[in-house]
Amino acid sequence: MVKICCLGAGYVGGPTMAVIAYKCPAIEVVVVDISIVRINAWNSEQLPIYEPGLDDVVKNCRGRNLFFSTDIEKHVGEADIIFVSVNTPTKTRGLGAGKAADLTYWESAARMIADVSKSDKIVVEKSTVPVKTAEAIEKILMHNSKGINFQILSNPEFLAEGTAIQDLFAPDRVLIGGRQTTAGLKAVKALKDVYAHWVPEDRIITTNLWSAELSKLAANAFLAQRISSVNAMSALCEATGADVYEVSYAVGKDSRIGPKFLNASVGFGGSCFQKDILNLVYICECNGLTEVANYWKQVIKINDYQKSRFVNRVVSSMFNTVSGKKIAVLGFAFKKDTGDTRETPAIDICKGLLGDKGQISIYDPQVTEDQIQRDLAMNKFDWDHPLHLQPMSPSGVKQVSVVWDAYEATRDAHGVCILTEWDEFKTLDYKRIYDDMQKPAFVFDGRNVVDADKLREIGFIVYSIGKPL
Ligand code: NAD
Ligand code: UGA
């Protein structure tokens, strides 16, 4: 029986390994983590991640061939294939701070693997890493290997949160990069055999190590670039009277461009797009490719511009100040169908409104008050470190409240900002909301989810992204 161990029971490690266990009953999969709390949650009824379909997959194989454990060394020692799916955040200090990937977690995982291994291993990079990371990992493993053979593979993950199970069940492609040597190709084949249990062979792409590592950064950069492109158009639409929905529909009909990922929004969020582009920019700079670095930097600049443009619009429409006004924020997660708030645009929007002394009342169906307060108290890129003071106005009055109902959030509010496209926001009783709000009642739809004309009939003043007033 092949034994797999995965280091890192996060958004990627947990669902990915659960699906491997589900699809390959003859393989034993153990997911380990340094966080006891996370492992306990994976072993409980309340999984640490909200992801449609995940509960069923986990319940189907947990205790059969899927296990979650904190006994890292034991399971690493016993495994044939070790996936490393630890976090690779942006460095917050030192060389490359604010851009380069922080590989501390990866390096300590590699050192531990070298220490405890007693048999040959295939070590798989599942985390998103800078190009040439495999070379560094190889050095760490080989220099401590005591004659053990380690083969490093790059097998980046392309799942998106909210659709992780669907993406893992039917991936567009699985990418495996390895050394082009006999041992390297044998390792690639071993990993390919795992995926071949359910992924058609023509969807399993094999490449050299550096192509696989770079393809992941490139894919995220291309995806984020599409969003920044449509968001840049949304600003032009607002200035000219064009409708961004109509423009992106017309553009996406070109089969060379395609219709997906062209929704204008308040800006992209999530743990990876910004981090991975910054990482790409840093690699370009290190290679002396200033123009290429500047090209990709612009994707982030437009994203930041879109968020600040939204805040400016809210404040300027509400007579140039939101000081002392209650603003309801509907949605805090970075997209629908997840409770993840990492780099969510809602953080920057809320901070912008707080900066103008607004009183914000937040409702999100999947994000806890504790998480929101923590996010609003944190510095950029600090989400891996604990630091949690509740933001207070100078008078000591709470400026942020978190409630468990959209109607509670909007009661007595002057304005409503929709920041996540949760389906339930489409079907709220907006007449009831309007009746309970201060007048004039504003709606700022950062996701274009409401029917603006219907809301205007009720009496709202509605601002949608990239649409005429
Ligand atoms: P995460 O923070 O949710 O999970 C990482 C886990 O690794 C944490 O639970 C942490 O405690 C654990 N960990 C850290 N060091 C460890 C060690 N030495 N041993 C064992 N466990 C350790 O992160 P994530 O969202 O799952 O992302 C992981 C990687 O996958 C990142 O590189 C990310 O860029 C990439 N990725 C993420 C997504 C996504 O949708 N979140 C998609 C594709 C790729
Ligand atoms: C993204 C990629 O889609 C995955 O392929 C990749 O594996 C992952 O990053 C990663 O490396 O972490 P994810 O961030 O989970 O997945 O979610 P997306 O669906 O890509 O959305 C990212 C952000 O872009 C969200 O804030 C979303 O609301 C926004 N978005 C997306 C738009 O504003 N417009 C769109 O048309 C699409």
From TrEMBL:
| Official protein name in the record | UDP-glucose 6-dehydrogenase
Query: What is the role of this chain?
Result: Involved in the biosynthesis of UDP-glucuronic acid (UDP-GlcA), providing nucleotide sugars for cell-wall polymers.
Q: Which InterPro entries did the record assign?
A: 6-PGluconate_DH-like_C_sf (IPR008927), NAD(P)-bd_dom_sf (IPR036291), UDP-Glc/GDP-Man (IPR017476), UDP-Glc/GDP-Man_DH_C (IPR014027), UDP-Glc/GDP-Man_DH_C_sf (IPR036220), UDP-Glc/GDP-Man_DH_dimer (IPR014026), UDP-Glc/GDP-Man_DH_N (IPR001732), UDPglc_DH_euk (IPR028356)
Q: Which GO terms describe its biological process?
A: glycosaminoglycan biosynthetic process; UDP-glucuronate biosynthetic process
| Origin species | Zostera marina
> Record-annotated residues binding NAD(+)?
8-13, 33, 38, 86-90, 127-128, 161, 272-275, 342
EC number(s) in its UniProt entry? 1.1.1.22
Question: Any idea which residues are catalytic in this one?
Answer: C272
**What Pfam families does the annotation carry?**
UDPG_MGDP_dh (PF00984), UDPG_MGDP_dh_C (PF03720), UDPG_MGDP_dh_N (PF03721)
Q: Which GO terms describe its cellular component?
A: nucleus
Keywords, in A-Z order: NAD, Oxidoreductase
Q: Note whether Nucleus occurs among the keywords.
A: no
- Return the broad EC class: oxidoreductase
Recorded catalytic reaction(s): these are: UDP-alpha-D-glucose + 2 NAD(+) + H2O = UDP-alpha-D-glucuronate + 2 NADH + 3 H(+)
